[in-house]
Design a protein that fits this description.
Blueprint lengths: L4 H16 L8 H30 L3 E5 L3 E4 L2 H8 L2 H10 L4 H5 L5 E3 L3 H15 L4 E6 L7 E5 L2 E5 L12 E2 L5 E5 L2 E7 L2 E7 L2 E13 L6 E11 L7 H13 L15 H25 L6 H4 E6 L6 H12 L4 H11 E4 L10 E3 H7 L1 H21 L4 H7 L2 E2 L2 E3 H7 L3 E4 L2 H11 L1 H6 L4 E3 L6 H7 L2 H11 L2 H4 L14 H26 L8 E6 L8 H17 L8 E6 L7 H18 L8 E5 L5 H7 L5 E4 L11 H7 L3 E4 L5 H8 L5 E2 L4 H10 L4 H7 L1 H11 L11 H8 L7 H20 L1 H14 L5 H13 L6
Parallel strand pairs: 1-4, 1-13, 4-12, 13-14, 14-18, 18-19, 20-21, 20-23, 21-22, 23-24, 24-25
Antiparallel strand pairs: 2-3, 5-6, 7-11, 8-11, 9-10, 11-12, 15-17, 16-17
Helix pairs in contact: 1-2, 1-4, 3-18, 6-33, 8-10, 10-11, 10-13, 12-13, 19-21, 21-32, 22-23, 22-29, 22-31, 28-29, 29-30
The protein binds ligand 26Q.
């Protein structure tokens, strides 16, 4: 149906009229989207079936990637590219007078994630399928993804996200594969044939119904599966009508909302329910499949690998133990070996507030059998520790899985898996030498690094078609399958015509983004100014505040001397704050307050513009990265595990202003010191300064007039705000001693930004730097990352 334009058009029109019962001339963009979506699904269905069949026949090892988040974004155009049919479709559409990009806009983002962790999971699925690796995702089909953000009077307002409101073309509901998940109740122990048995009585069950989404690889027949579980009532359970309503509400609430927190463990029971719901449904489904295919449960780990994306699905460990013990009748030792050998774990953060722990009083009644098993794992682990470190109570207390009335999820992950990885070299080092050092001492062999990556198919080919064309015109198209071949561009860094083309493409992308900014914010920005961009979740450690204080300083400079010669800059922000994160919301208000004043001050002659783009999400990001000149990666060193936005900017030829944190360090090593703007304290200095307690933020306030001026402006209403509006920010800097060293790094940040200005004036040099960055960015393709996971951790092989 996509073999050529003519065939496509005929099929499309036929299908459209059959489905909607109206002539083409009366059809809408939405009809076009739905029709095309269904055609694609039909088109891939035989490959989808064949992929599953081939995996079954091949009997090779498969990996299941368990994640509480999958931040997919839109799928239509991405699928067209991976299937290699986007040209046929866009030309066919164009003949019919349909604009494919308008049709693309109909699709809602699948925003089933908060940020980095969820987007990483989505990139991994794309790489797994493209590399023909037998790997599938398991997640939750939240009715509402991450909230929609509106900015009203400078403040963030949250609206429920509604991605399912027009239905979902990509999913297939599989009611026959539903499974039941037990909550609450009591565990009955009894003896049978001399063996202790466990029975879960009076449980309230919830039914998990799978909705499968095809994951289509790039130019390959592989179609893997993302299985999202929907929570529904188990039929005929409750007794009276009142009860049925409560039961229905409670069960459905499990898959109703994605928790909008990206680094804060709130300890809400519903979140724990979600976690067990995902894990139990997924494991039951994996085991059912396994048993249909293989007889010997003792070889489970030879055929199956289960990866847990952070600790959120860590209950996979006790759940697998439960099934192996209670259902399969294995001994503890047998079950434990299989479980450990099956499970691997990625850590995404060292922030203590993000490390999950659950109070026993919540955990035990909700998941009684799982709690018993964790308890047993803990007892055995502590006994082991005792024999290794007799008398060392303190060490055992620090390492225990259950301690002080809490279940510590990271400890469970460390003990119950065979592999623990960080997401950038420095992050893994910090885990080994600091956060998880006690565990590293006893399990050094488990620790390994897997530096994150991004799929260049979405973040370059799809989002920046013009740059893609230039690259292919220059070095051929082999880089698409082998992204490290982008390094061939290095020989173009002195090629004037290449650099001119690069500049022209960046300019066109900036014009496009400027148009979006004008439409959405009503602000006119100059596409020849430097587009300086910070887009990511809002968090104190990411230091959007450092960026704003510096903008305030630049504004002060211009006020004092309107003739000051600086390259005009457009500062662009995009960030969602967790709804309960009061401080983060104040930063959003500050950005918007500064924007209002700066953008409307005629005296500064448009040398500065500040834009806050509302509702930052995957589909908006696709317009932002290609248009950026500067990428702000300015976290307090040691705090950002890796970052992945940094890689997306780099691949699109933006230059990084960054600290030596996360993957910025590896970027610097690749491009060399001259092709990146590094500033600020390094991780060791930060961690030592925390330890010594020698930091006094007030000293920086008193000794640096620039800092004093901008910090005072937070208080004195200079930006036309209520004078106490920004007290929480002022206090964080001066009363709470500036936990993230914003003031300490201010000088070095201002200095590097001056260097950015100077460098930008030398366009030849600037473009050369961009070229080097693009050339070296292939290393950060998630294809590289996934190959490393496949070879070192999962031990899986491509089917073809
Ligand atoms: C935990 C408990 C309760 C509620 C929410 C959470 C929660 C949810 C999401 C905790 C953390 C997250 C997400 C974390 C995350 O996105 N981390 C980022 O992961 C990226 C991919 O590895 C890294 O690049 C980033 O550096 C890291 O911040």
């Amino acid at each position: 149906m996509f073999s050529n334009k003519k065939v496509f058009k005929r099929y499309f029109l036929q299908k459209l009229e059959m489905t909607y019962g109206k002539p083409f001339k009366d059809s809408t963009s939405s009809d076009h989207f739905q029709t095309l979506g269904h055609m694609i699904r039909e088109y891939v269905s035989s490959n989808w079936i064949n992929t599953n069949e081939s995996y079954r026949k091949d009997k090779g090892k498969q990996v299941y990637y368990l994640s509480i988040e999958f931040l997919l974004g839109r799928l239509l155009y991405h699928n067209l590219i991976n299937l290699g049919i986007e040209k046929v479709v866009s030309e066919g559409f164009s003949d019919l007078g349909i604009n494919l990009h308008e049709v693309e806009e109909i699709e809602c983002d699948a925003g089933l994630g908060n940020g980095g962790l969820g987007r990483l999971a989505a990139c991994f699925l794309d790489s797994l399928a493209t590399l023909n690796l037998p790997g599938h995702g398991f997640g939750i089909r939240y009715k509402h993804g991450l909230f929609e953000q509106r900015i009203v009077d400078g403040y963030q307002i949250e609206l429920p996200e509604q991605w399912l409101k027009h239905g979902q073309v990509w999913e297939v509901r599989k009611e026959d594969l539903a499974v039941d998940i037990p909550f609450w109740g009591v565990i009955d122990m009894y003896e049978q044939d001399g063996k202790l048995q466990f029975r879960h009585l009076n449980a309230e069950t919830v039914t998990a119904v799978p909705h499968d989404i095809p994951v289509i690889g790039y130019e390959t027949k592989t179609v893997n599966t993302l299985r999202l579980w929907n929570a529904e009532p188990t039929s005929l359970l409750a007794k009276d009508v009142k009860d049925i309503m409560r039961y229905k509400r409670e069960t459905e609430s499990i898959s109703e909302f994605l928790y909008p927190d990206d680094a804060n463990d709130e300890g809400k029971i519903l979140r724990l329910k979600q976690q067990y719901f995902l894990v139990s449904a997924s494991l039951q489904s994996i085991l059912k499949n396994y048993k249909q295919q293989y007889k010997d449960i003792k070889k489970f780990h030879q055929h199956i690998s289960i990866h847990i994306n952070d600790t959120h699905p860590v209950l996979a460990i006790p759940e697998l133990m439960r099934i192996l013990l209670d259902k399969e009748g294995l001994s503890w030792d047998e079950a434990w070996e299989i479980t450990k050998n099956t499970i691997s774990y990625t850590n995404h953060t060292t922030l203590s507030e993000a490390l999950e722990k659950w109070p026993i009083y919540i955990f035990q009644p909700l998941l009684p059998r799982i709690y018993m098993i964790i308890n047993e794992i803990n007892e055995r682990f502590c006994k082991n520790l005792w024999s290794k470190f007799p008398g060392d109570f303190q060490r055992i207390e620090q390492m225990a899985i259950i301690a002080h009335g809490m279940v510590k999820m990271a400890h469970l992950a460390l003990v119950g898996s065979h592999s623990v990885n960080g997401v950038a070299e420095i992050h893994t080092e910090i885990l080994k030498t600091r956060e998880m050092n006690l565990f590293y001492q006893i399990f050094p062999e488990k620790f390994n690094n897997k530096t994150n990556g991004i799929t260049h198919r979405r973040w370059l080919i799809k989002s920046n078609p013009k740059l893609t064309q230039l690259v292919t015109d220059s070095i051929g198209d082999k880089w698409i399958k082998h992204p490290t071949q982008l390094s061939k561009l290095l020989s173009y860094q002195t090629d004037t015509s290449f650099l001119q083309n690069l500049a022209a493409i960046k300019q066109e992308n900036k014009v496009h983004l400027a148009k979006i900014i004008q439409e959405q914010n009503g602000i006119i920005v100059d596409p020849s100014s430097i587009f300086d961009v910070q887009v990511k979740r809002l968090h104190a450690y990411k230091r959007q505040l450092l960026n704003v204080l510096h903008i305030m300083h630049l504004y002060n400079l211009l006020k004092a001397d309107p003739g000051l010669e600086i390259t005009p800059r457009t500062f662009i922000f995009g960030a969602k704050a967790s709804p309960g994160y009061y401080y983060a919301k104040k930063i959003i208000k500050l950005i918007n307050t500064v924007a209002e004043k700066v953008n409307n001050d005629k005296n500064i002659q448009d040398k500065l513009k500040v834009v806050f783009l509302e509702n930052y999400r995957v589909s908006l990001a696709e317009h932002i990265f290609p248009a950026a000149d500067i990428s702000e990666q300015i976290s307090t060193a040691s705090k950002e595990a890796s970052g992945t936005g940094n890689m997306k900017f780099m691949m699109n030829g933006a230059l990084t202003v960054g600290t030596l944190d996360g993957a910025n360090i590896e970027m610097k090593e690749l491009v060399g010191d001259n092709n990146i703007f590094i500033f600020g304290m390094n991780a060791e200095e930060v961690l030592d300064l925390y330890q010594s307690g020698g930091y006094r933020s007030t000293e920086y306030y008193h000794h640096d007039k620039r800092i004093q001026e901008v910090v005072n402006q937070l208080k004195n209403g200079f930006f036309d705000h209520e004078s106490n509006e920004f007290d929480p920010i002022f206090d964080s800097l001066l009363i709470e001693n500036d936990q993230y060293f914003v003031l300490k790094d201010f000088h070095s940040y201002a200095k590097i930004q001056e260097e950015v200005n100077t460098t930008y004036k030398d366009q030849q040099k600037w473009l050369q730097m961009c070229a080097v960055n693009i050339a070296k960015s292939g290393h950060f393709s998630s294809d590289r990352t996934i190959k490393e996971y496949a070879d070192d951790i999962w031990k899986i092989k491509p089917l073809f």
